[in-house]
Amino acid sequence: MSVTITREGEIALVTVDNPPVNALGQALRQGLWDAVSTLDADDQVKAVVLICAGRTFIAGADVREFGQTPQPPHLPDLVTKIEAAKKPWVAAIHGSALGGGLEVALGCRFRVAVESASLGLPEVTLGVIPGASGTVRTPRLIGLEKAIAMITSGKPVRAKQALAYGMVDALIEGDLKDDALAFARNAMLQSLPQPISLRPAHQADEAFWQTQQENVRKAARGASAPLMALESVRQSSLLPFDEAMAFERHTFLERRDSREAAALRRIFFAERGATRPVALQDITPVTLKTIGVIGGGTMGAGIAAALREAGYPVILTEQDEAAVERGLANIRKIFDDSVKRGRLSKAQAQERFAGVTGTCNYADLADADLVIEAVFEEISVKRAVFEKLGQVCRSDAILATNTSYIDPRAIAEGVPHPERFIGLHFFSPAHIMKLLEIVPVPQTSDTVLATGFSLAAKLKKMPVRAGICEGFIGNRILKRYRAAAENLLRKGNNIADIDASMRGYGLAMGPFEAQDLGGLDIAYLQREGARAAGQTIPQTLGDILVEAGRKGQKTGGGWYDYTDGSRKGQPSAEVTALLKAHVTSSTPLSSQKIAETLVGEMAAEGQVILDEGIATDAVDIDLVKIHGYGFPRWRGGPMFASDRA
């Protein structure tokens, strides 16, 4: 790590070089502290430009210090020292100025940035709030509404938007160093703006704060850090600067030791290492150039779209020309919907779609580096696909199945060179959902396994290695969760109350409304298949509804009734009548107890999965539930929430 000082005439250039992301560890804080003192004492220096080496500006705190007692110089004191420097500082921003990095920039008298830079205060995503003036200086600089949006969401803004906000003073189009030095020289000829700490706080009435609190509470889904950050912003509008800073710092230190912060730190570190497992770090993955997808239905189209988003040419293969056209139409619709939502331009959508080739001739896959099967969940259909792939694909081409429930070992039977076979379980819709369960068979080579994780990184997915069992990790826990919800129903708890309890816990939907959205018949058909294979599968309450024609929203009724195309379900008298004989008691639980019971069941199944070696770490189970099933991130996953981590 180094903080170096060079001089360009009357302008000093302070360069931070602390790879990989110039994190604000103690040594860097000390280096900047000393630089302020050194330059204040240099009469030849009229202004200072702060710039960073490498790929980014200061990208935040040093994660190695997370959970530890901060060591001096403390960041709030450093920001104050920079702001109070005798010579005005200019922050020259490229890459990301995040968290403490942005707070350092706020201490500078000016901020300039390249157009590709981003600026943000993501502390709430780690369960804390900004602790070095983020909630105090930011609203003084850009106003309350914009500051609240940035701080309580943790989402960064691009430099162009930051310029419109007034957070940066100029966009740099040429060389960052040269243009920042030129900006500093020109600024010396003008009247200097007031330090942010001396600017008046923006004011708002009580109705404004009530509206903001309701909006933040709704978006936070039970997380407390965003609401505490909002309160710190509110206090910054009411208190003198020093008192507002004291409130922010006290709240930050209090939040740092909270269970929410501990949960989010744990998930942060798990996600950070997910795409490069320690056991595979010395293994070089295969370079993938062209990827085939078998099946153009909902799942196959989503996988193809995700691959195109990452820049891979895709060969979509179906059984006949009509199916190829349907598959291509499904992919085109995904891109068209992205245009409607403003996520893609029309030109980008056209470019994505142009990279998909449709065929019903398996021979067109001869040069593919990876082929992903995403056909109907029936083993005979899948085996037929891999028999063809074994005949036409190169011997070193990786072959993957997207099965959700079927044993990959059974699918792989007879595949030549089985070391290149692997399970890649995407979650629907595959172009949106982040989870990717990676399921090797016993013969899968480490190179192929490493390639699976490498592909996940390029697709911006969250990969988790899973062993082989029915439903792998996620769907196996989901099965027990649904059974536990039905058990609560049998004991007299109301369907709507159970769903409301899980929404109150932080999930987007409860177990019954989620089934109605996805379709009750999906799990029903899986159970029926197991029964047909000779397994003893007890009848579920969901089976009763499906057999009565209630398959969910798509049939106008599942656990709830849906009328006039509405997606909001209403309590159903028909369901009450159908299930009445199966309600054996009337002992409803409190909302908190319902949530504790269901989360406890998830964790209990997770523990069995760990004991069986299907997962190797409790945090892997929590990653699966957070990224694949909407478990509230701030609670850390069912294993953490149930003290099984």
From TrEMBL:
SUPFAM superfamilies tied to this protein: 6-phosphogluconate dehydrogenase C-terminal domain-like, ClpP/crotonase, NAD(P)-binding Rossmann-fold domains
**Which pathway or pathways does this protein act in?**
Lipid metabolism; fatty acid beta-oxidation
What residues does the 3-hydroxyacyl-CoA dehydrogenase C-terminal domain cover?
A: 471-562
Entry keyword set: Fatty acid metabolism, Isomerase, Lipid degradation, Lipid metabolism, Lyase, Multifunctional enzyme, NAD, Oxidoreductase, Peroxisome
Give the UniProt subcellular location, in the record's own words: Peroxisome
How does this chain assemble? Monomer.
Q: What is this protein called?
A: 3-hydroxyacyl-CoA dehydrogenase NAD-binding domain-containing protein
Lineage, uppermost ranks: Bacteria, Pseudomonadati, Pseudomonadota, Alphaproteobacteria, Hyphomicrobiales
